[in-house]
User: Fold these one by one.
Assistant:
Number 1:
Amino acid sequence: MEATNTLSKIFDKNQLLTDPDSLAEYGKDWSNASLPNPLAIVFPESTEQVQSLVKLANQTPFNLVPSGGRTGLSGGAMASNQEVVVSFEKMNKILDFNPIDRTALCQAGVITQQLQQLAEDKNLYYPVDFASSGSSHIGGNIATNAGGIKVVRYGLTRNWVAGLKVVTGSGEILDLNHGLVKNATGYDFRQMFIGSEGTLGFITEATMQLTKLPVNLTVMVLGIRDVDAIMKTFQAFKDKMDPTALELFSRDSVAIVHEQKGIPKPFETDAPYYLLLEFENDAEATENLVLDTFEQCTNEGWVLDGVMSQNEQQARNLWRLREDISESISHYTPYKNDLAVKVSNIPAFLASLDELIAEHYPQFQVLWYGHIGDGNLHLNILKPADMDKDAFYEECGKVNPHIFQLVKDLDGSISAEHGVGLLKRDYLSYSRSEAEISCMRGLKTMFDPNGIMNPGKIFEVAG
Ligand code: MLT
Ligand code: ZN
């Protein structure tokens, strides 16, 4: 109560919510990893207002949880312990566009699609893309170093952040890198804040790099014979071209997208796996190369059938087979895992994962899809309709140590792109050494000495 009274010194009544519906809504993300129970929601409108809030939170004290589009899948934006949720919804403007540097200065609450649209209006391209780009915020994307479907060509969000303005946990405003391409003046703190999940400070503004528009993006969906053929087909195309996306999904994913969204199968021929390949169809020679590779893979028996988009609408429809999976399976309350290995380790990983799944999940439907071009697989276990959710999650959780040990043995990551948040924090040591975790804790203490910034995410709150 004391905290809400003091909040009203900084925020007017349009910037402060405490009603039960808003608390329930803003206190959670897509993970539903815990029960929402925040104290209040505030809507700052400037970096200075965020700074005043952080200073107040240190004095009072109370804890802060940042809130972007709340599309996270690891519980990074859950507020369950009377924290004040800081929504960046009102900081949603693109403040500047620089055509020479090809940069856009965005407030943290700019929606990904808003930036993509601005880029397109300027005949440029913001390449980080995923199914949630219509609601995710740039600030949240940076805080989680979001990946998505174009990483194979364009890399992660990190590659597109030319500058950052942040408010640290001790209430300092840091203006990091100033949009420079070159800047060899010591530690690049910008990189520390990217992927820090709001645990060091809050991003309030970002200078985002744009690039040239790709030409005539064309999509091909291929039906693949088996796991071995996935890698062979993948390699055949990678050797010949530089795709803008290379995605994998299974037969069951196609069936569920059809059931939930009415999207038809790409072709009649049945296939256990599908590869989606997107490329710039910029010359007749490129298209011929793609068609030749397709023929080669078909002759080898790796590819069972295929279809290629002939216009933008067809390309969009083919993308829906992949992009609609996540939302379609949410109907089945999936237990999600987001794993990565080096591309060269994918065959070994898939073979062992198959064995693990057969041994530990014989009773559940297992569905996988992912960004195979980046070595990133999403493993989803679907809940049987008649099973209680908590019991199901508990059962699935028991298998995590086996899966994560396999990931560790292959030097992989237990969270490729969804972040650590609450859901992966107890497993962090499968991917990061004790020495690394200790350095991470040290960094947290330096930027956030009182531990008020998104406490409990990435690490347990220090006891
Ligand atoms: C995806 O690739 O579709 C997203 O990471 C979301 C998900 O894994 O469900
Ligand atoms: Zn993904």
Note: The radius of gyration is 23 Å.
Number 2:
Amino acid sequence: MKRKVTKAIFPVAGLGTRFLPATKSIPKEIMTLVDRPLIQYAIDEARAAGIKEFIFVTSRGKGALEDYFDHSHELESTLRKAGKEDLLEALRDTNMESGAIAYIRQHKALGLGHAVWCARRLIGQEPFAVILPDDVIAAEKPCLQQMVEAHAETGGNMVAAMEVPSEKTSAYGILDIRDDMGALVSVKGMVEKPAANTAPSNLAVIGRYILTPKIFQHLNRLKSGAGGEVQLTDAIAEEISRSNNVYGFRFRGQRFDCGSKAGFLQATVAFGLAREELHEEFIQFLIGMTATRKAAE
Ligand code: UTP
């Protein structure tokens, strides 16, 4: 029987060095796109996919992230008295049910694979999702929901995948495709950051995964191997070599790499323009900026 996916791991223990000095005191995941922190986009996507248990792998200095999900009774009562129903509604979206969130500590930033491994005791025998909140995906149907629906048919392990230009393959894990079925591909290998001329395809893995608990056995072995970071990609590659049940899923939507400055700015523009109340003023501003720059060139 195929098990439902009800747990998600959010690895948020990275150092976020690309956003220093901001990340000296603010977790990257609390940085805002328009008016919502990155983590809120990830939580909303997980909820839409039917996730009930939210496991955060955190580290030192991530207190603001943990506090973000606390109910703010004082603020809520002030807003209620002032009749600010719309703001109350926005706050309600951030409230999490008691017991729905777990925080696990990663004591040292030993890599994404290690961060996922830290959550092993909270997972049990069922498949689970992994969401990297720096990858923000604008989509009509949220990306993880698309994946959970596809996973109900395939079972096994699934990674979100998107086509990238050849000159960009060296920035991603790239899939070696066995069988291309359209949205779904079955995978016979995975190569980390290959140069353009050695990449087995243009299909890159991004930060959404549905994995089986067997991944923890591979992470265990990798962890006790040579020093350095423990890569999630290596554990998935190990699973590919042992089984026939790893799929790539071409999601429908636009992904923004909010772990990089350029990606974060692009997402800010896209999500700002998508807001009805901001659209007109913002687009006029952008048109004006572009015209001024063109004139100056
Ligand atoms: P990144 O590769 O973006 O690293 O991690 P980072 O530390 O967050 O950022 P930079 O590169 O220093 O700017 C991808 C995801 O894996 C998590 C991060 O929090 C992010 O969600 N991660 C990474 C961990 O949880 N632990 C780690 O040891 C490494």
Note: The two ends are 63 Å apart (CA to CA).
Number 3:
Amino acid sequence: MKKLIDLLAEEMQAAFEKAGYDASYGRVSVSNRPDLCEYQCNGAMAGAKAYKKAPIMIANDVVAQLQESHVFSQVDAVNPGFINLRVKEEFLADYLKEMAADEHLGVTQAEQPKTIMIDYGGPNVAKPLHVGHLRSAIIGESLKRLGRFMGHKVIGDVHLGDWGLQMGLIITELRHRQPDLVYFQEDYEGEYPTEAPFTISELEEIYPAASAKSKEDEAYKEEAMEATHRLQQGDAGYMALWNHILNVSVTDLKKNYEKLNVTFDLWKKESDAQPYIPDMVQYLKDEGYAHLDQGALVVDVKEETDTKEIPPCMILKSDGASLYNTTDLATIVERMKLFHPDEIIYVVDKRQELYFTQVFRCARKAKLVDEDTGLFFLGFGTMNGKDGKPFKTRQGGVMRLETLIGEINDEMYKKIVENRSVKSEDAQKTAQTVGLAAIKYGDLSNQATKDYVFDVDRFTSFEGDTGPYILYTIVRIKSILNRYVEVGGDLAACSMSGASNESEKSLMLELGKFAGMIENAYEEKAPHKICAYIYDVANAFNHFYHETKILGEEDEYKKQSWIALLAFAQRVLETAIDILGFSAPDKM
Ligand code: ARG
């Protein structure tokens, strides 16, 4: 289905042509003076030079062609040569009806769907999720949904960190605490227990304890490094422990991601890429991409146009150990082999930007990816507290994700109970739904690359540019529609017709922009554009609502048209928030 703005442009292009000018001047944009017009065309200004004519003369010629237009209700040439446009109500209503009849609300589905892998979440085994993981999860999830809405095949991969020193640290600490466990017996040959020798809360205490010790005690650190090495060599007892750590952790991670309404298609791990390393290293050597530098194996990735120094990508350390880079490159090899993606998008803290520049360049240079495989780094900024410093607990520690979600939900619960529109037994559940919207919208409404301030008071407010405000608007629409049905109205019999007042028209115009907005948000990997859009729609709806007595309207035809418009607005809003990864309750 064509986008509204393209249909408007087609009408303008035809008019330019009929008036004897080149059709390409008939470009249309949303008006930057909404008080004067809805859309505008600046083609006459652009054409003045080519035709050696005053722009206003061209504008007048074009306007003369549009007197009978079925698309525009008003077309004005204004000095020095702008063309101001208003869309015909019937045309707009027809467009919205066509959108409503389309499963994707007028968004054209990709003709050649791409396979897109999104690497997001990035939690580390045995470490609890903290606020630093929030952004990756929220942004990645919405990009995944956005890609799918456009008709692409999108695969979300959590890319679990399970292969580093943290594993050796945990094993070492366990060894100190419980040296008698069978996992540590050299000559043990029996089956290892199926039950893990720790719970998730023990695990979450063990890791920080071990990490702290290793910072003070050199010998302890050596031991942990040795344990990591032994694990990576495949020691049976250590592997069995590692499996326990993994299982206990993943169960807990899944539970937490579920609370965020975030799901992954793949629960791949760094360790899954390890089998690809030996062949990859051999290949890099054989093909001459890698060379030794002070004992380490590196690939040069600097380019002539670089304005800052891009260090070589290190593949193996001088002791032969692999690194974070090695794993990421091997993961690329694995992904190409198993999924052959057209694009891989990494949603990771922007402080890892240089690192990913090295990895991508190395992958390209060494042809680990096809020439036309896109590698994208979407680096996000830091989530700060009100003091402008990275978000912390009141005690100054790293805040666990669970704690943050809990705090927001408590705050929402208080507000919802105050409102008294929800039965108290439902209030808890509603608080979770609205709380999630508060968190996600608060995050996604900012451009991903920028830092932002996580402000609990602002994010949970029912007013302003917030998740709860958007949900409140949807709930308001739902309640009007419910009342309409309660008094015997039939939603299916309602159909949109032309606008009868300015605020209704504004709402219709906003709704008509949906497809263009979605395409743009997808191309720019910019969920914040969806937030900005639904905020505009919500404002337009509330404006209309305050000016119009909808259910009290006597003219049945008008009333039905409004009801249809409301149902449609609800659908547009709910589709958009679903792409953002949250939903609306029935009441709040
Ligand atoms: N686990 C990593 C960290 O905590 C993030 C992983 C990002 N993804 C990747 N392919 N490197 O920093």
Note: The chain has a mean pLDDT of 95.
Number 4:
Amino acid sequence: MAVERTLMLIKPDAVKKGVEGEIIAHVQKQGFKLVALKKLQLTKQQAEKFYYVHRERPFFDELTTFMSSGPIVAMVWEGENAIARIREIMGATNPEEAEEGTLRKLYGTNIGENAVHGSDSKESADYEIPFFFSGLELVG
Ligand code: IDP
Ligand code: MG
């Protein structure tokens, strides 16, 4: 196991619900360290760039329209095995299939509007963290 950094997003649905504080506290209580945080709204084009790996998927337009529809909160979390562990804390993509107590079960709406994003691999984290934050903004 190694100390890793991972990108997490609080998606527009969860920001609209006003549960940013609950989500941040939930992750912090699992022992992760917050190293960066900002609130912003993506343009459609920026959302398409962030999710370019999904450009051939049938839900790409729906996803990028949703992700640019309102403010989001971007965060970088640090900790042992952070990438896989934060994916576990988030739960399954579809909130209806997510385990009890996971963020998507607690705060997700449906398979598209599922409250949170988390990097799914080291390669994704290496693309996603600098997408939102400069080195100066990562305070370990
Ligand atoms: P993940 O976020 O759990 O890694 P992915 O399959 O990588 O899930 O999909 C990325 C995002 O695309 C999901 O979090 C969700 O917001 C959206 N998405 C996935 N499947 C669907 C779908 O069938 N309809 C609409 N949106 C979807
Ligand atoms: Mg994914």
Note: The CA atoms of residues 24 and 34 lie 9 Å apart.
